[in-house]
Amino acid sequence: MESEFQPGKFKDTYRQKLKKVIEAKAKNKEIKTPGKKTKKTASKNLVAQLKESLN
Fold this sequence. Notes:
55 residues
């Protein structure tokens, strides 16, 4: 490694976001979470999709 690790250069954004969620829950506010991104597939058959994923 060329230089020493300096933790002051990094921000703990996870902890900041978690703290906001906890504070919002404590005030009985609704919490918005990002939705999951789904990928549409042509096949409705799960076994066919699994076989395609192996290729």
